[in-house]
Design a protein that fits this description.
CATH architecture of the largest domain in chain C: 3-Layer(aba) Sandwich
Radius of gyration of chain A: 24 Å
Structural class of chain A: mainly alpha
Chains: A mainly alpha (284), B mainly alpha (296), C alpha+beta (408)
CATH superfamily of the largest domain in chain C: Periplasmic binding protein-like II
Largest interface: A-B, 101 and 95 residues
Number of helices of chain C: 18
Distance between the termini of chain C: 60 Å
Number of strands of chain C: 13
Largest sheet of chain A: none
Order of helices and strands of chain A: HHHHHHHHHHHHH
Shape of chain C: globular
Number of domains of chain C: 2
Strand content of chain A: under 5%
Shape of chain A: flat
Oligomer: heterotrimer
Structural class of chain C: alpha+beta
Strand content of chain C: 5-15%
CATH superfamily of the largest domain in chain A: MetI-like
CATH class of the largest domain in chain A: Mainly Alpha
Distance between the termini of chain A: 44 Å
């Protein structure tokens, strides 16, 4: 056996081990999800049962049909999409320059503000509800998407600022300085150098904002009234089976349907999450 | 000096939209809560509340009894345990996912994100009813198949605490893995190559190269997670303390404790005072730990 | 310098995005103009019940358009928006037990502003009593519900049905084995345990807002109830209890009307019987009852007085009570509904009516809000953690009293 073949063999063994490991990890992680999947495909209206099996006895797609026909899911999807996209765009637009400023510029108040920002996270957000209501009410933003967007962007601007500032800190200043010497203009510096370099961080932040909006139901149910204004998470919350009403299988089916778009986005975005540093930043 | 002033101006201009939003949505509610804590806003004076000075704070001290102290200690233990496990597991998994030439990692990464793609309350309900239920839960069905005695997972303080930890990890790990993964991608690979040439093993590389390199990137997210873990309400409340479905375990954290001992009174002034005091405790806590971190 | 320009530009981008974000979307808070009046009613009911109500109220169209909106977290939302004409509903459809809270907050209008007092005489007195807080009637009752004793005929024949609690205990001892239970209930929740307390003359909260957790009778009831709990699964929340019954693993249970349709769907041959009598006191287990009805919000009362009066007028029709009773499996609040054979011939509704004779309406005073949690903690201490009944009851009483003090 040549040295080369040995290495190939070792490489293959490593790959197989990794795959086995991750298949096991994923399976363990997904047990509750598989549970939901099984409940959603089961014809009996029950969340718990004494003879549970991952492959249901009475297989049915009825619950999925019910999700799409009996509930305005597509409308909720549209609402969630609108909110998510607008929130992602605005919070990034607000947070990127701020994160850049806090990372690159030295100014009075920088350190205290940073410290305060982190501390603000320790305030239980449930308690903010009433205050935010008193804030939005005079503006006429109750039961309005704009109001929700304001809440979401405010919460996420803070998160985005802190998260991206940490990443900006790691981009060597020399790259920018070199570009400046090369005669890059201010806009070029930002669009050609800084943003591509920070791409992974921006994408990660964007995905997180997206997921936050997608899953947020507390504000969405409290501040919005009427099924036509619901987001997916709020709609799902209203489908929640309680003792008095609701069907567990439909709820389980709906929760799986709701999470699917997030996974698709996540899968698609991953390709672009590799670092701008290794993917060509040095060239600039 | 002049340059400094100019930079300050531009910096504030750049961060103005962000800071303004934060001021409105994050800072204002805290100030408003502080304001309400000095009033008698309750069921009997909901819209016509008036200033009552420090009365609510005087009353609030009753909440801070031995039960609260136990809850506070439990919360600290909860935060430390969760953070350590989260960081270690996320770091290991993210490192494995970043091994060069590992094909199919995108699939695994996506699968591992699934717990995060569902609203938290859905997942907690699934865990509670599907996995931990003592009559029908998967865990006990498996125990029975193995011929073991069934366990009331959520009734006993220790096991309930561990169950909550498992669920919290399940909910929080995707976020942490993603942060770590993003950070790891930013590490310059040339560093590794020279380290491997020098004969460093995985642990040495992790300790001397990877961790110092990703620390500044993940620091803000980790800090945020520390706070969200500290003020975690849903997991503990929905699993063990939910009204109508209490399991008998006494594992209150400060927030669930405050909920049962203040928030249910519908006395908004009083609840606000309790919240502000908890907020103060948290700030104190973080100041102490950050000072310790600096010293250490 | 260039960096600064770049920064400035990013700010511009951000601000313009912010502006476009704000201008799109738009609110629909347009003021009410001429034409049909819209009446918004919040509710938290099942679709069938809401549908039945909607059908009845559609007769008011086109002059009055009634919009039923299902609202999650209805009670908390009302606290927030209750006096805001732009976000509050005009009426809401809910149980009577929050009346005290909202009346004290000042967001409710008495329904006697819209409905003639004599009309209220046509209702079962208990329902009007439940709707009355500090002398004012704040709810137009539609139907009421309470817990029922249900059994599975496959295991428990009609003449095996226990008429006393000791008989029930004997049945439980004999039949609780091999994964089967003679009787299950949500033993450690305040709503379900209240029935046992009442049978002993104990109480959770009296009409003056005084908690009775350390009352001698309450303690006696808790002690007596304990032996029943020992023969039930320790997890007493609804999904466990209801699934056991639905899957035929529990021979009998105490449950709400909402359990009936799902139990029948699962193929249970369902029997409904009167509550067992406690041997020691000779009283039947007397659960709480809830009266579901329509409440009017003050903010709407003046602006839409006439429309609201018309809506309430429709809701006093017998047909509403009958339709709603059929949809929910509950008993109509209006006496004359029982003259209709559809109601008097319905076993389920009549069983509900009969049990409700002994039932105790949930207290509607604001103090009740804290009692649910405190009582449940006490029940958990006694039933699950095995703590001493008396000392737990005293501690709970103390906590209840201090929480009630903190409400002020």
């Amino acid at each position: 056996m040549t040295r080369h073949q040995k290495r190939m063999l070792k490489q293959a063994a490593k790959q197989i081990c990794l795959h086995i490991l991750f298949i096991v990890i994923c399976f363990v992680t997904l047990i509750p999800i598989l549970y939901a999947l099984s409940v959603s495909l089961n014809a009996d209206n029950s969340l718990v049962s004494s003879d549970f099996r991952f492959i249901p006895k009475n297989f049915t797609l009825r619950n999925y049909v019910a999700v799409f026909t009996e509930e305005p899911v597509m409308l909720w999807f549209k609402n969630s999409m609108t909110l998510a996209v607008v929130t992602v765009v605005i919070s990034l637009a607000a947070a990127i320059p701020a994160a850049y400023a806090f990372s690159r510029m030295r100014f009075k108040g920088r350190k205290p503000i940073l410290k305060q920002l982190v501390l603000l996270y320790s305030f239980p957000s449930v308690l903010s509800m009433f205050a935010i209501y008193t804030l939005l009410r005079p503006l006429g933003l109750i039961n309005s998407k704009v109001g929700l967007i304001l809440i979401y962007t405010g919460t996420m601007a803070e998160f985005g600022l802190l998260n991206m500032k940490g990443y900006f800190d790691t981009i060597p200043r020399e790259i920018e300085e070199a570009a400046e010497i090369d005669g890059a203009s201010g806009i070029q510096l930002v669009t050609r150098i800084v943003l591509p370099l920070a791409r992974p961080s921006i994408l990660v932040t964007a995905v997180m904002i997206l997921i936050y909006v997608w899953n947020e139901y507390l504000f969405a149910t409290t501040f919005m009234t009427g099924a036509e204004n619901y987001t997916l998470a709020a709609g799902l919350y209203s489908l929640q089976a309680t003792e008095m009403s609701g069907s567990w299988p439909v709820f389980a089916a709906a929760s799986l349907v709701v999470s699917l778009p997030i996974l698709i986005v996540f899968f698609a975005v991953q390709r672009h999450m590799t670092s701008g540093l290794t993917a060509g930043g040095v060239k600039g | 000096m002049k340059k400094n002033k100019k930079e300050t101006f531009w910096a504030y201009l750049c961060s103005a939209p962000s800071l303004l939003l934060i001021l409105l949505i994050v800072v204002f509610p805290i100030l408003y809560t502080a304001y309400i804590s000095f009033t008698n806003m309750n069921v009997y004076h909901w819209f016509n509340f008036s200033f009552v000075g420090l009365k609510n704070y005087k009353d609030a001290l009753f909440v801070f009894d031995s039960g609260f102290l136990a809850a506070l200690l439990r919360t600290i233990l909860w935060t430390v345990l969760n953070m350590v496990l989260q960081l270690v597991i996320a770091f290991v998994l993210a490192s494995l996912l970043n091994i060069q030439d590992f094909k199919g990692r995108r699939v695994y990464k996506t699968l591992l994100m699934i717990p995060w793609a569902m609203p938290g309350y859905v997942s907690i309900l699934l865990w509670k009813n599907g996995i931990f239920n003592s009559q029908f839960g998967l865990l006990n069905q498996w125990m029975q198949k193995l011929g073991l005695a069934t366990v009331r997972w959520l009734a006993n303080d220790v096991s309930a605490f561990l169950c909550c930890t498992v669920v919290n990890l399940w909910l929080a790990l995707p976020f942490m893995i993603m942060i770590m993964d993003g950070a790891l991608q930013a590490v310059d690979h040339s560093c590794y190559e020279s380290a491997i040439l020098d004969g460093a093993n995985w642990f040495q590389r992790a300790y001397f190269i990877t961790i110092p390199a990703i620390r500044p990137i993940i620091a803000p997210s980790v800090l945020i997670t520390v706070f969200t873990t500290f003020k975690q309400f849903d997991v503990v409340y929905l699993l063990t303390q939910q009204a109508g479905a209490k399991t008998g375990a006494n594992i209150h954290t400060i927030l669930t404790y405050a909920y049962e001992n203040a928030f249910i009174t519908n006395n908004y002034g009083y609840s606000s005072a309790v919240s502000i005091l908890i907020f103060a405790i948290l700030i104190l806590f973080s100041m102490v730990t950050s000072r310790k971190a600096k010293e250490g | 310098m260039k960096r600064l320009i770049a920064g400035f530009l990013s700010v511009c981008v951000a601000v313009s995005l912010l502006m476009t974000g704000c201008s799109s979307g738009g609110t629909d808070n347009t003021a009410q103009t001429d034409g049909p009046v819209t009446i918004t009613i919040w509710h938290d009911k099942e679709d069938e019940v809401a549908q039945a109500l909607q059908t009845e109220l559609d007769t008011l169209a086109p002059d009055i358009v009634v919009k039923l909106e299902k609202k999650d977290g209805l009670t908390d939302s009302l606290k927030m928006v209750g006096n805001d004409p732009n976000s509050a509903p005009d009426m809401y459809f809910f149980a009577h037990d929050k009346i005290g809270v909202y009346a004290e907050m000042g967001i409710l209008a008495p329904i006697t502003d819209f409905v003639d007092k004599s009309t209220l005489n046509q209702y079962i007195p208990m329902t009007i009593e439940a709707a009355t807080y500090k002398g004012e009637v704040y709810q137009l009752p539609i139907y009421f519900e309470t817990l029922l004793y249900m059994y599975n005929r496959r295991y428990m024949s009609d003449d095996e049905v226990p008429s006393t609690t000791e008989e029930l205990y004997k049945y439980m001892q004999e039949n609780t084995k091999g994964g089967h239970y003679g009787f299950v209930e949500q033993h450690s929740t305040a709503y379900y345990a209240a029935g046992w307390l009442h049978a002993f003359g104990g109480y959770i909260l009296n009409e003056n807002g005084k908690p009775g957790l350390d009352d001698e009778n309450t303690i006696k009831a808790l002690e007596y109830h304990k032996k029943f709990v020992e023969l039930m699964p320790t997890e007493g929340e609804y999904s466990t209890v209801n699934t056991l019954f639905r899957e035929g693993k529990a021979h009998s249970t105490i449950g709400g009307p909402w359990l009936v349709p799902t139990a029948r769907e699962s193929g249970i041959d369902l029997g409904i019987a009167p509550m067992p009598t406690v041997d020691e006191t000779g009283n039947k287990i007397a659960p709480y009852s809830g009266v579901q009805g329509i409440h009017v919000l003050k903010v709407a009362a003046e602006r839409k007085h006439d429309a609201i009066a018309k809506v309430l007028q429709v809701l006093t029709n017998d047909s509403v009570g009958i339709a709603m009773a059929k949809a929910s499996g509950c008993a109509p609040a209006k006496q004359s509904c029982y003259d209709d054979p559809v109601i008097s011939g319905d076993d389920m509704v009549m069983a509900m009516y009969d049990t409700a004779q002994d039932a105790v309406p949930m207290p509607n005073v604001p103090e009740m809000d804290v009692m649910w949690t405190v009582t449940e903690n006490l029940l958990v201490d006694v039933n699950m953690s095995g703590k001493d009944v008396r000392s737990s009851a005293q501690a709970a009483q103390q906590q209840a009293e201090s929480l009630i003090k903190q409400m002020q």
